[in-house]
Amino acid sequence: MNLRFSILANYVSQFYVMLVSMALVPVYLHEMGPEAYGLVGFFSLLFSLFYLLDMGLTPTISRETARFHGGALSAQAFRQLFRAMSLAFAVVAFLGGGVIWLSSDWIVGRWFRLDAIPHGVAQFAIELMAMSVSLRWMGGLYRGVLSGGERMFWLPTFNALMATLRFVGVLVAMWLWGYTATVFFAYQLVVAWVEFVILAAKTFSLLPASSVIGWSFSPLRPLLQFGMITALSSALGMAVMQVDKFLLSGLLPLADYGYFSLAVLVATSVMVVSTPISTVLMPRMARLHAQGRVSEMLSVYRLSTRLTSAIAGGGSLTLAFCAHPLLTMWTGDAQWAHLYWPILSLYALGYGLWALSLFPYYLQYARGQMRWYLLGNLMFLLIQVPAIIYAVPQWGAVSAGWVWLILTALYLVLWGGVVHHRLSTLSHTVWLFRDVFSVNWPVLVGMMFVGLLDLHPQSRYETMAYVVLVGGGLMTANVAWLAWLERETWRTWLKPTGKTT
Predict the structure, then answer these.
(1) What is the Cα–Cα distance from 313 to 495, expressed in whole angstroms?
(2) Residues 195, 139: contact at Cβ < 8 Å?
(3) Can you give the pLDDT at residue 293?
(4) pLDDT at 500
(5) What are φ and ψ of residue 167, in 5° steps?
(6) Dist. CA 440–CA 219, nearest whole Å
(7) Which of 93, 176, 337, 461 fits a disulfide with 328 by CB distance 3.0 to 4.6 angstroms?
(8) Contact 3, 147 (CB under 8 A)
(9) pLDDT tens-place string over residues 293-311
(10) Stated pTM of the model
(11) How far apart are alpha carbons 279 and 144 in whole angstroms?
């Protein structure tokens, strides 16, 4: 499957998942209450933090699947590696889920600041979360195989179906049995089990035939160095993304944390729109590097940067500019929007910079050299944690947004230059100005023009029109400008590179 169709399929799926999840959040908040929704926000955080136990397994199986399809790995070796990965995933799922389960009483009693929800109800919700995140993370093994094999139509279609069950179906379940945290998380566990079974069945139907495989971790030994560095890098990368939410879950009352989670959820849409590109880009770059086609890999890398900058970077600027009217339209609560729009704006800008700062990581991933990503994330985290612990008690949740924005900007500009200098012939300055910043001038000019008009929508319908017309117009102008700039290169870059399935 060529990149054009793969990226399109992933974008359709990601946008659908994003829209269906965000559209229903105000319903969850209204029906369940802010404190119960705080548990939902913690569930999302817990699922992300669970990947700290990944140990580099997911990116490793995806990369090795891509190398298998590129001819660098035999069917026998790949099946043995898959079996070893299955053992590792099962061990990690059991240990990680067990730790969360056993810690449920401590989390509810010592970490949360509850007012309305009984201790026992919250603890049972945490126990249901433990089983759900274990099953969903186990599915990461099969998603890695499907992604590395570039099954880029089936996988996004399946993701959209699961999102419908997870976000829409739960409303049916709560309508039947009650709008409570217990019903919500019990239903999520059922969906996680269905998701796991289908992913496993699809993956096993696609594995190559092989002779006796055996049960052993020995196939992982040749990948130990790459896997361990990737493990630490992935853990630190996930910690960088989630540590502020984790700290705020204890620093803020659970109801306030629920509101904070809503604002950050909208901001994460910036990462959602960049994910389809990385999902397709990483296995393709790994395959090109394995085939020795380095110049073509760098060409894909640079044009992918420009595409991400136009969509994720332009989207973050648009989201930050429209933060206040967007939250007003979304929730229908002007007072709440007035309090939390700065958090949305700051986190949106930070996520846009973070989406672009991940590109040097993609380069390291393709080359199998992850230590620079590891070191960069470690330095980021060592500054981020004490900064949040110091700032939030004094200046509130908005200070966490400022910490995130400033650190992601420094990471992109400074640390990205270190990686480019060490691992490629690419000029970091040219990359920043030609591939990152120059793409977004239509959004910046549009923001200045709209600001001069000094528009102030009053009703919710006027606000909706403002968000759709202004936000949609800015993003359309940005993407159209990139399409015009790259009109001669799209067909060449997006054509298939070798046989894919």
Answers:
(1) 25
(2) yes
(3) 80
(4) 40
(5) -100, -35
(6) 46
(7) 337
(8) no
(9) 878 788 888 888 888 888 8
(10) 0.68
(11) 10
